[in-house]
Design brief:
Elements (H helix, E strand, L loop, with lengths): L3 H6 L2 H23 L3 H9 L5 H22 L9 H4 L4 H17 L4 H9 L3 H18 L4 H8 L12 H5 L3 H21 L4 H27 L12 H12 L8 H19 L14 H18 L5 H8 L3 H22 L13 H10 L8
Length: 377
């Protein structure tokens, strides 16, 4: 990608911010239309439902890994310069943070990206939970919880095992990684066809995943052409949510970069997609009892995501797309804790009225699984 024209006319921070905003708009619009959500996929998997929501996640995940690995193989993306591979990462943080994040997203009824997408459509529960998530992420990054995060993260790092490149540990070639991605994509397509998923929803799921390699491609191009050092990165929400929060709270002149553009971009993209499809609707809490559950889950995700070095998207999709070991540890722990937490919640004898509300994506998934009546002449 030749960015000479833009670099000669605009400052590098503004180009990075606009690039992050553009990627965010695309991610937000596609994620809103596809109903992409790791929590939803994990719940379906836990209940043995291999339907629309799981197929959307598989197609998003496989598109991100496949697209990124193709660009890396072609030399368009220098993955070894990404933070996840270029510097030591915390294995203890990935495991414990992933466990906290997985349980938190079940309690908050959505991961960080899903809360942001839903808040743009008028879901006030998601908006408040997202704000709690951002505050906890900031407290964990630079605030009162930073010592605790650093203490846990220092227990076991990738420096102790010689790096974070899983492909190098397993002696995997790009061909093997690409073939595995194609297998996950095939599984997603199979489940989608079997559950009669809407075609546009599946296309939107692929579009959500493809924003990840686009982000890697853009930041890699900036890193190779800009005069100042540029961090090669893609889409994540834990750190950017904290940075965006401080951008609004701190005096003018705060640093602009790719991360700062992503969060507003996702909100804008989701809002526009919901507006065009007439899906905007104000939703609030039905009562006060369930608020504690949402806030607790959001707080767990904020600390857990920062401890793990990424959220369900940042580690689970973006980090996995460059085959970072800690990202796969985080993703595994998120899935495991999400399933266990859901099982524990299910055995509770009573539920509040709000907990009995069936979210929109669950209604869509159930409708897709209903058999189509056959008309007889």
């Amino acid at each position: 990608m030749n960015l000479t024209y833009f670099l000669e006319r605009f400052s590098e921070p503004w180009i990075l911010t606009v690039g992050g905003l553009t990627v965010g708009v695309l991610f937000g619009a596609f994620a809103q239309q596809s109903r992409f959500c790791l929590r939803a996929a994990a719940l379906d998997f836990a209940h043995g439902i291999f339907g629309v929501r799981l197929s959307v996640w598989l197609m998003t995940f496989s598109a991100a890994v496949l697209g990124t690995q193709v660009l890396v193989a072609l030399g368009e993306v220098h993955a070894t310069e990404a933070r996840q591979l270029a510097s030591p990462q915390s294995l203890s943080g990935a495991a414990i943070g992933g466990l906290l994040f997985g349980s938190g997203m079940i309690l908050a009824r959505g991961c960080a990206s899903r809360l942001l997408v839903l808040s743009a459509t008028g879901n006030l529960r998601a908006l408040l939970s997202g704000l709690v998530f951002a505050v906890m992420a900031q407290a964990s990054l630079r605030g009162i919880l930073m010592p605790a995060r650093e203490w846990v993260a220092g227990w076991w790092t990738t420096a102790d095992i010689g790096g974070n490149d899983l492909m190098a540990f397993l002696s995997m070639s790009f061909t093997v990684t690409i073939l595995l991605s194609l297998m996950w994509l095939a599984a997603g397509v199979f489940f989608a066809v079997r559950s009669r998923a809407p075609l546009w929803q599946m296309i939107a799921g692929l579009g959500t995943g493809l924003t990840i390699p686009v982000a890697w491609w853009f930041t890699s191009s900036m890193a190779s052409q800009a005069f100042e050092p540029v961090q090669i990165e893609a889409v994540t929400f834990t750190g950017p949510s904290a940075d965006t929060l401080m951008l609004f709270l701190s005096p003018p002149g705060s640093t602009l970069d790719f991360d700062v553009g992503v969060v507003p971009g996702v909100f804008l993209g989701s809002f526009l997609a919901a507006l065009l499809t007439r899906e905007l609707a104000l939703q609030g809490f039905e009562g006060g009892k369930s608020m504690a559950r949402y806030m607790t889950g959001a707080a767990m995700m904020g600390f857990g995501g920062m401890l793990a070095g990424g959220c369900a998207v940042g580690a689970g999709v973006t980090g996995a797309s460059i085959v970072a070991l800690t990202a796969w540890v985080t993703l595994t722990c998120i899935w495991f804790s999400a399933v266990v937490t859901d099982r524990l919640i299910e055995v509770q004898p009573k539920k509040t009225p709000e907990e009995k509300i069936v979210p929109e994506e669950e209604m869509i998934a159930k409708a897709a699984l209903q058999p189509v009546p056959v008309q007889r002449g």
